[in-house]
Protein backbone atom coordinates (compact mmCIF):
# COMPACT_ATOMS: atom_id res chain seq x y z
CA UNK A 1 0.00 0.00 0.00
CA UNK A 2 1.35 3.43 -0.96
CA UNK A 3 1.68 5.94 1.83
CA UNK A 4 0.96 9.60 1.30
CA UNK A 5 3.68 12.18 1.82
CA UNK A 6 1.78 13.12 4.98
CA UNK A 7 1.88 9.56 6.35
CA UNK A 8 5.46 8.90 5.25
CA UNK A 9 6.70 11.96 7.12
CA UNK A 10 5.01 11.59 10.49
CA UNK A 11 1.64 13.24 9.98
CA UNK A 12 0.50 16.32 11.88
CA UNK A 13 3.39 16.21 14.36
CA UNK A 14 5.94 16.76 11.59
CA UNK A 15 3.78 19.19 9.64
CA UNK A 16 3.32 21.35 12.74
CA UNK A 17 7.11 21.48 13.25
CA UNK A 18 7.68 22.34 9.60
CA UNK A 19 5.07 25.09 9.65
CA UNK A 20 6.44 26.54 12.90
CA UNK A 21 9.92 26.70 11.37
CA UNK A 22 8.44 28.12 8.16
CA UNK A 23 6.86 31.01 10.07
CA UNK A 24 10.10 31.69 11.94
CA UNK A 25 11.66 32.22 8.52
CA UNK A 26 8.69 34.24 7.26
CA UNK A 27 8.74 36.64 10.20
CA UNK A 28 12.47 37.26 9.63
CA UNK A 29 12.09 37.95 5.91
CA UNK A 30 11.85 41.59 4.86
CA UNK A 31 9.75 40.84 1.77
CA UNK A 32 7.00 38.75 3.37
CA UNK A 33 7.01 39.64 7.07
CA UNK A 34 4.92 42.81 6.48
CA UNK A 35 2.01 40.61 5.38
CA UNK A 36 1.85 39.17 8.90
CA UNK A 37 1.86 42.33 11.02
CA UNK A 38 -0.98 42.04 13.51
CA UNK A 39 -1.75 38.42 12.58
CA UNK A 40 -2.53 35.93 15.35
CA UNK A 41 0.38 33.62 14.57
CA UNK A 42 -0.89 30.73 16.69
CA UNK A 43 -4.07 30.70 14.62
CA UNK A 44 -2.11 31.20 11.40
CA UNK A 45 0.16 28.24 12.18
CA UNK A 46 -2.89 26.10 12.88
CA UNK A 47 -4.52 27.01 9.55
CA UNK A 48 -1.32 26.64 7.57
CA UNK A 49 -0.59 23.27 9.20
CA UNK A 50 -3.95 22.02 7.99
CA UNK A 51 -3.36 23.43 4.51
CA UNK A 52 0.14 21.94 4.17
CA UNK A 53 -1.23 18.64 5.45
CA UNK A 54 -3.71 18.58 2.57
CA UNK A 55 -0.91 19.32 0.08
CA UNK A 56 0.88 16.29 1.52
CA UNK A 57 -2.13 14.03 0.99
CA UNK A 58 -3.36 14.28 4.57
CA UNK A 59 -6.87 14.95 5.81
CA UNK A 60 -8.85 18.05 4.95
CA UNK A 61 -9.25 20.20 1.91
CA UNK A 62 -9.16 23.83 0.90
CA UNK A 63 -11.26 24.87 -2.06
CA UNK A 64 -10.00 27.29 -4.67
CA UNK A 65 -12.76 29.68 -3.62
CA UNK A 66 -11.58 29.60 -0.01
CA UNK A 67 -7.99 30.35 -1.01
CA UNK A 68 -9.10 33.28 -3.17
CA UNK A 69 -11.35 34.67 -0.43
CA UNK A 70 -8.75 34.64 2.34
CA UNK A 71 -5.99 36.13 0.19
CA UNK A 72 -7.79 38.61 -2.07
CA UNK A 73 -7.47 41.59 0.27
CA UNK A 74 -3.77 41.04 1.02
CA UNK A 75 -2.27 42.30 -2.25
CA UNK A 76 0.24 39.46 -2.49
CA UNK A 77 2.56 39.77 -5.48
CA UNK A 78 4.57 37.18 -7.41
CA UNK A 79 7.81 38.02 -5.61
CA UNK A 80 6.23 37.43 -2.19
CA UNK A 81 4.69 34.17 -3.37
CA UNK A 82 8.08 32.96 -4.62
CA UNK A 83 9.70 33.86 -1.31
CA UNK A 84 7.01 31.98 0.60
CA UNK A 85 7.47 28.90 -1.61
CA UNK A 86 11.22 29.02 -1.05
CA UNK A 87 10.84 29.35 2.71
CA UNK A 88 8.43 26.43 2.77
CA UNK A 89 10.97 24.35 0.87
CA UNK A 90 13.74 25.33 3.32
CA UNK A 91 11.60 24.45 6.34
CA UNK A 92 10.70 21.06 4.91
CA UNK A 93 14.33 20.31 4.09
CA UNK A 94 15.41 21.37 7.58
CA UNK A 95 13.06 18.77 9.04
CA UNK A 96 14.50 15.97 6.93
CA UNK A 97 11.71 15.54 4.42
CA UNK A 98 12.99 13.74 1.33
CA UNK A 99 13.76 15.87 -1.72
CA UNK A 100 11.13 14.13 -3.86
CA UNK A 101 8.46 14.81 -1.23
CA UNK A 102 9.57 18.43 -0.85
CA UNK A 103 9.40 18.89 -4.62
CA UNK A 104 5.89 17.41 -4.77
CA UNK A 105 4.58 19.65 -1.99
CA UNK A 106 6.20 22.79 -3.39
CA UNK A 107 4.71 22.01 -6.82
CA UNK A 108 1.26 21.49 -5.25
CA UNK A 109 1.72 24.85 -3.54
CA UNK A 110 2.94 26.57 -6.71
CA UNK A 111 -0.05 25.55 -8.83
CA UNK A 112 -2.21 27.61 -6.49
CA UNK A 113 -0.27 30.83 -7.13
CA UNK A 114 -3.01 32.26 -9.33
CA UNK A 115 -5.45 31.91 -6.41
CA UNK A 116 -3.25 33.85 -3.98
CA UNK A 117 -1.47 36.53 -6.01
CA UNK A 118 -3.62 39.61 -6.45
CA UNK A 119 -1.09 42.39 -7.02
Concise description?
The protein is 66% helix and 0% strand. With 119 residues, the protein is mainly α. The longest helix is centred in the N-terminal third of the chain and has 18 residues, at 11-28.
Summarize the topology.
Elements: H1 5-8, H2 11-28, H3 41-55, H4 64-71, H5 78-94, H6 99-110, H7 113-116
Helix pairs in contact: 2-3, 2-5, 5-6
| Poorly predicted ranges | none
The outline comes out as globular
Helix/strand-derived category reads mainly alpha
Q: Total number of β-strand segments?
A: 0
Mean pLDDT: 95
State which percent range the strand residues make up.
Answer: under 5%
Oligomeric state of this protein: single chain
Strand and helix order: HHHHHHH
User: Could you describe the largest sheet, including whether it forms a barrel?
Assistant: none
Ends: how far apart? 43 Å
Computed over alpha carbons, the radius of gyration is 14 Å
- SS element count, helices: 7
**Which bin fits the share of residues in helices?**
55-70%
What does this structure look like?
There is one protein chain. With about 120 residues, this protein is mainly alpha-helical. Helices cover about 65% and strands about 0% of the residues. It is built from seven helices and no strands. It has helices at about 5-10, 10-30, 40-55, 65-70, 80-95, 100-110, 115. Helix 2 (about 10-30) packs across helix 3 (about 40-55), helix 2 packs across helix 5 and helix 5 (about 80-95) runs antiparallel to helix 6.
Amino acid sequence: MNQTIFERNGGFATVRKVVSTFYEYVLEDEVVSPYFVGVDMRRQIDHQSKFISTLMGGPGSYSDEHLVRVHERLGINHEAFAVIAGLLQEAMEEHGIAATDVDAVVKAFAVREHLVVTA
